[in-house]
Structures are given as structure tokens and as C-alpha cells.
Amino acid sequence: MPIDPFRLRVGDVVTRSELAVEYGGATQGGIIASRRTNRVFIFTDHSEGNQFGYVYDGFSSDGSVLFYTGAGQSGDQLESGSNSPILTHAEKGRSLHAFVADGFVAGTQTKRQRYLGEFILDPSRGFERMAAPDRWGASRTVIVFRLLAVTEVPSSLVERVGFSGITDRPGALEVPLEINSRFFFETAPRAASSAVRKESQLVDEFVANQAGHEFKRWAIKLPEERSPLLTDVYDRTDRVLYEAKAIAGRADLRMAVGQLFDYRRHVNVDNLRCSVLLPSRPSADLRDYLQAAGLGLAYKDGDRFSFEGTATAA
């Protein structure tokens, strides 16, 4: 006979089919809203989730927060659709119940779901947005909910779920140069779309010109910010972080200097150097400015790129 989740004790086991029969809702997917009651069920399963880039599920190191990756296997995850039941559960009067996959029913391929208890979305900061690969390996951002337990979760269940890599400390993650996301935070109001396109084109030309070098980007997560910072281009071979600008003018260079100083505090690379990437050679005074700031310079020079100044290792 199906067991009512509200009458389950933390640590008890149920199957998804039993929940679906009793309360309605699908037996597939990680976030299931009951069709007959005001309940939302969420399921975490590392064996299934890791292949889709759901690499952040788990408890915080002190067990106070359950991090849970939202729905969506390709592209940036959205706050609507399948993720809405979690985001809106409190305002709609729905209770939120979490389960972790725990083996199989004897003699079957039916997974057992161990009940973790009731949770609420953290009212102070409902979710983080983190960089992660999709099912085809393309990099994007995912929503990672911050869930707080209504009653204490035993340490044995916390250990069974495991621990998330998300912390309340700043952190930087190397991501592909071609990351596909529209959710990264900029340190200043976004430049006009034409300038963004020119910067992107400049980066593409620069990368194509540097044969034998491996290029990445850095996604920098700050606890105070919902979305990560995203650097322009990182030469992994020479350990140089570049900030590209579409114009070799004073305002653009001053912005680039500020961005690089901001980024390099969080990129933990030994002997990291920072440089500004420009479409042309700037004035002598601006070159002196970069040199005084301890930054290098790379600029387009005909069909190649020239380098000036000596970037000081951070």
C-alpha cells in the first residue's frame, strides 16, 4: 500500500511509483509536483545526475544547506517551467520533500528512494547560478537551489547524499572558451552589442593566431553575487589572463585594468600574469599606464598580434 510522504519518517524508503499512484505526478524527472495535493517531491541521484552536469548536488560542509541542481539538460537552466515548483513552493503553500536514490528493490531494477525530510527554499538566497557542462559537453549555467531542512537530517543521511563543492568562499572554475551562457555578471553595465561582437571577434582572431596554445576562460563565483564573473580569455599555456576591449581608448583601458585586478584575486594559478588585448596599439601614455599597473599588452598589428610590456606575475 502506498505510503503518505507526510507520514514517512526521515530515513524511510518508498518508490517513485508508490508516490505517483498516491499523489499523482510523473515517475521520471528530478522535480515532481503532485497533481492531487500541495506537495512537491525532489529526487537526487548522483549516478544519473553527473552525466548531465548535475555535479553540485549535496549538503554544505556543515550539513545546514542541501544544494540541489535544477531541471534542464541543455542550455542555461531557466527559473520557469520545471524549476518553478521549487521557486514558488512557499508562496503557493506547497511543501517540499526530498529523497535520495538508495539501491534497488530486491529482484528488480526499481530504485529505492530514501526520505530525507521536508525542506524550504532558503529565503535569503534561493539559488546559485553555476557553470556546468550539458549532456553534450557544452558549457552553460545551471540553477543550484539552496534548501534548508525543516527538521534535522541525521549525519548518516547527510553522508549518504554527499557534500557539494559549493562554499561560501569565492572560487574560480576553468570553463571552455566557447561557453554558451547569457547569465554571467559583468563588472560594469554591458557594452553595446556591437562592441561585444567586436571584442568576441578580436578574441577569435587572437586565439587563431596563437598556434600551439591552449585557451580557456574562468568562471568566478562570488557568494554575494547570484551569477558568476566570466573572464574573456585565458592562455593556459603561458598562464596569461587577457581582458579584451573593442577600443584602445582611455576609458576602455581603465575598465580593463579594474576587471583584471578583480579577476586575478580569485584565479588561483601560480605566476599568473594579466594583459589587455586591444584591436590597435594605444597611445604612449596608456602604454605607460599599463606598465605602471604591472599589466602586459597584446594588440592587433596587421595580420598578426604584437606584445609589449611585461606582465607582472600575481
Question: Notable features of this structure?
Answer:
PUA domain-like; ScoMcrA-like SRA domain-containing protein; 7 helices; SRA_ScoMcrA; about 325 residues; about 20% helix; alpha+beta
Secondary structure topology:
Layout: E1 13-14, H1 16-23, E2 31-33, E3 39-44, H2 46-49, E4 58-59, E5 66-69, H3 84-87, E6 95-104, E7 111-121, E8 127-133, E9 139-149, H4 155-161, E10 171-176, H5 193-209, E11 215-221, E12 229-230, E13 233-235, E14 240-244, H6 250-264, E15 273-278, H7 284-292, E16 296-301, E17 304-308
Parallel strand pairs: 3-6, 14-15, 15-16
Antiparallel strand pairs: 1-7, 2-3, 4-5, 5-9, 6-7, 7-9, 8-9, 10-11, 11-12, 11-13, 13-14, 16-17
